[in-house]
Structures are given as C-alpha cells and as structure tokens.
C-alpha cells in the first residue's frame, strides 16, 4: 500500500522521502496559471465566466451568491450542523482572540528613544475555500474568524461552484455564521487573480488566504507582492511517527483522513520497529478497501504514500524535519521526548488521543497550514496575517544629541551626506 524506504544505514539518503508528493514538475501548471491570471486581469468577469464553464462545467449568470441565499443556507441547516459549526467557531474565535491579545506589546525605550507600535488590520481580505470533491465549511471558519478577530473591515470569499452552479449549503451556512460579506462562486487560479486584481464584480483585496490545489497555490505565489498571502497552502500532508503504543488502525485512519482530501498529497509513516510499519500496511489494506473515498485515498498513496524505517526516534524526527510536513503526529508513548527535536512542521499533535483531524475542526488553532516544505520558514494562518505593525518613534533634543555622533560615523561610512546633515543641523548649537 505504501512505498517502503529503509534509512537505517548510515549512508542512506533521506531525501528519497521527498518524492512523497509524487507531483509532476510545475512548469505546465505554472504556464496555465499565468495564462489564467493574465486573462482575468484583461477581461475580468467575462474571463471568470469562461474559465468556470471550462474547469467547473458551470455557466454562471451572476458571480456573487445572493446574500439572501447565504442567510437561507444558515436558516435551513440541520440543527446538528448549526450546533457543530457554532462549537467550532467558538473554539477558533477564543484561540485567535488570545493570540491577538498576547501580541500586544508595551512600548520599548532606550537612550531617550521611545518606540511603540500601531497595529492596524488590512481593509479587505480575500478568503479561498476549496470545493469540488468535498465541502469545507470548517475552512470558512478558519479563514474568516481570524480575519474578523484582527478587525478586517470586509471579507470576500471565493469557492468553486458545484454541479448546480452554487457552493454547498454547508459552506454558505458557515459563511453566514462567520460574518462573511461577499460569497463568489469562483474557484481555481481565476479566483486568486480576481481577488488580487479585481473585476467588475469582485473588488481587489489586500491579502488572500486559504488552501487549494496546486493551481491555487501557484497562483498565490504569482500574485504575492501585489497582495499579501498567508502561505503556499496546497495539497494536504501528514507525517506520523509511530511506535507500538499506538494501535496501527489509528495510524492507518489518520493517514487515510489526510489522503482523502484529494490529489498530490503526502502521507508518511515513520517507525524504528519494522513490525509497526507492517501492521500499519495490513490495517491500510483492510480499511482502504471499505473507504467511501477509496479512489482518492489510493491515488494519493500511489504518489505520496511512504513507509519509512529508521534507526531510532531521533532519526525519525530528523526525517520529518526534512519533509517539513503540514501535520505531524507524534503517535508514541512519550511524545514530549521527541517534541523538543521538532524544527519544521505546520502543526504537531502529541500522543494517541490527539489525531490531526481534531486540528482540522475544533482544537482552536488554525488548520490553514504551510505545505510543500514551506513549514521550514512559514507558519499557520494567524491573526497577524491580517494585520500590519507600524513603528512609531519619539525622542527629544537631548536624546537626538546623544545618538548624533554615532549617526555621523555611520552616514560618513556609507557616503550619505544628506542623511548626516539631517541630524547634524538639528543638534548644532
């Protein structure tokens, strides 16, 4: 079921695990993305209608979903769905409010120079939520709630239309609950282009957040710089470090849970006991055969499923750090012994009772996480993704006089005479 890699030899090359994604080179996809972005920038709504007809098979009259339909989706949602969404929203909001408040720092000062910060939200944020293979109301909450907590004034959501021409009602219901201002039934690279540059229907935003397929991720990379982005959040990734203390069925189910998201994902299990890997393979064989989304899971495992045998726990974490996964599960008896070695992961789930699925829904922290090894330098979507920090500097004449000699030396070395004079003339007797 999973490709087996043995790294116990000291000379073994751990980079073979990086083939886990199984995706083809990005050149053709990137060419397509660039063509779509250029088309949307030139033709606006007309290009959105044409690309939606081509990629989604839906011919749109209006691009924006009528707000009354969004409200009706919430009103008509089953009570158990409304309760689950409200519970998840409460957890997500509480976590991100704590994150916002903890980031507030008092002023700093030294040598008579006082420095404070203005923290300001962006004015308008674009939220991207995937569709097509599944509905993701949880991602609506994960993107919209931190933006609202940050104080963003306007939220525009793009989500691909289903066969009936509209996003799923559960997605619309979550948008209503989270206070999204606009819902547009557009997906793919064309949605990213519309959010970045605007059309007759969709006004441009300041930052774009949310996960998507490879085309969405490439498009976010292309427009970054013109707008802010959270990270290149692409196909789902999971690394599980396991020992015999965790039932192999649990490990198998966790790998399957991430694999059922769709193509080009990564599912890796690492252990130092061959019996653990064998038991996980056996469990996968039985469970995948009965899975409703068997085709998606098997496709993901074929390209990105790897079973890695290592010498010990230290090497297991070293391999995981190389992969830099979106999700990392420490499914071992003593997860804290390994946690201190973790350097690169979007989120870590410790022990047998904390599966990554909990992070997808109700743990509170965000499930929009860095993928494609970007966890080496990027972090989860957070309140500060939607905020700007503006330095404010105050000082009086004695303070300026005190630092002026140092400024004079530095400006002279750099050959910037006007820089030096801007200080020197202020402090001359």
Layout of SSEs?
Layout: E1 3-6, H1 27-43, H2 45-56, H3 67-75, H4 79-102, E2 108-110, E3 113-121, E4 124-128, H5 137-150, E5 154-158, H6 169-178, E6 182-184, H7 188-197, E7 207-209, H8 214-223, E8 228-229, E9 237-242, H9 248-259, E10 266-271, H10 274-289, H11 294-304, E11 305-309, H12 313-323, E12 327-331, H13 335-339, E13 347-350, H14 356-361, E14 387-394, H15 397-414, H16 417-427
Parallel strand pairs: 1-11, 4-5, 4-7, 5-6, 7-8, 9-10, 9-12, 10-11, 12-13
Antiparallel strand pairs: 2-3, 3-14
Helix pairs in contact: 1-2, 1-7, 1-8, 3-6, 4-5, 4-6, 5-6, 7-8, 9-10, 9-11, 15-16
Task: Describe this protein with a few key phrases.
Rossmann fold; 429 residues
How would you sum up this structure, described in words?
Helix 3 packs across helix 6. The strands form 3 sheets. The protein has a 6-stranded parallel beta sheet with strand order 1-11-10-9-12-13, sandwiched between helices. It is globular and about 85 Å long. The chain folds into 3 domains: about 5-25 and about 235-365, Rossmann fold; about 25-235, Nitrogenase molybdenum iron protein domain (Rossmann fold), CATH 3.40.50; about 395-425, no CATH class. The model has no long low-confidence stretch (mean pLDDT about 95). The chain is α/β, with parallel strands linked by helices and about 425 residues long. The N and C termini lie far apart (about 80 Å). The protein has 16 helices and 14 strands. It has helices spanning about 25-45, 45-55, 65-75, 80-100, 135-150, 170-180, 190-195, 215-225, 250-260, 275-290, 295-305, 315-325, 335-340, 355-360, 395-415, 415-425, and strands spanning about 5, 110, 115-120, 125-130, 155-160, 180-185, 205-210, 230, 235-240, 265-270, 305-310, 325-330, 345-350, 385-395.
């Amino acid at each position: 079921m999973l490709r087996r890699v043995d790294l116990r030899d000291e000379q073994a090359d751990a980079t073979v695990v990086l083939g886990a994604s199984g995706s083809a080179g990005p050149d053709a996809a990137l060419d397509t993305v660039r063509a779509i972005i250029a088309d949307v920038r030139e033709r606006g709504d007309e290009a959105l209608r044409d690309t939606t007809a081509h990629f989604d098979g839906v011919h749109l009259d209006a691009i924006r979903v009528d707000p009354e339909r969004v409200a009706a989706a919430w009103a008509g949602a089953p009570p158990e769905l409304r309760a689950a969404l409200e519970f998840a929203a409460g957890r997500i909001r509480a976590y991100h409010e704590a994150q916002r408040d903890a980031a507030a720092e008092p002023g700093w000062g030294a040598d008579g120079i006082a420095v404070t910060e203005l923290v300001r939200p962006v004015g308008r944020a674009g939220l991207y939520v995937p569709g097509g293979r599944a509905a993701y109301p949880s991602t609506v909450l994960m993107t919209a709630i931190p933006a609202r907590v940050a104080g963003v004034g306007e939220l525009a959501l793009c989500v691909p239309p289903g066969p009936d021409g509209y996003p799923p009602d559960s997605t619309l219901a979550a948008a209503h609950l989270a206070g999204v201002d606009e819902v547009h039934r557009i997906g793919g690279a064309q949605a990213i282009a519309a959010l970045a540059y605007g059309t007759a229907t969709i006004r441009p935003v300041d930052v774009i957040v949310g996960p998507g397929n490879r085309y969405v991720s490439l498009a976010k990379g292309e427009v970054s710089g013109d707008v802010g982005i959270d990270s290149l959040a692409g196909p789902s990734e999971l690394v599980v470090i396991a020992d015999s203390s965790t039932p192999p069925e649990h490990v198998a189910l966790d790998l399957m849970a991430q694999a059922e998201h769709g193509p080009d994902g990564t599912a890796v299990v690492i252990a130092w006991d061959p019996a653990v890997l064998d038991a996980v393979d056996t469990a996968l064989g039985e469970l995948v055969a009965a899975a409703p989304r068997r085709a998606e899971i098997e496709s993901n495992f074929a390209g990105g499923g790897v079973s890695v045998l290592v010498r010990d726990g230290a090497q297991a974490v070293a391999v995981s750090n190389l992969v830099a996964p979106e999700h990392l599960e420490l499914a071992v008896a003593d997860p804290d012994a390994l946690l201190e070695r973790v350097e690169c992961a979007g989120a870590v789930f410790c022990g047998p009772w904390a599966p990554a699925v909990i992070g997808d829904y109700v743990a509170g922290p965000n499930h929009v996480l860095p993928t494609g090894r970007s966890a080496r330098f990027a972090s989860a979507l957070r309140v500060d993704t939607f905020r700007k920090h503006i330095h404010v500097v105050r000082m009086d004449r004695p303070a300026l006089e005190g630092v002026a000699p140092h400024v004079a030396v530095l400006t002279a070395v750099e050959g910037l005479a006007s820089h030096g004079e801007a200080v020197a003339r202020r402090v001359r007797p």
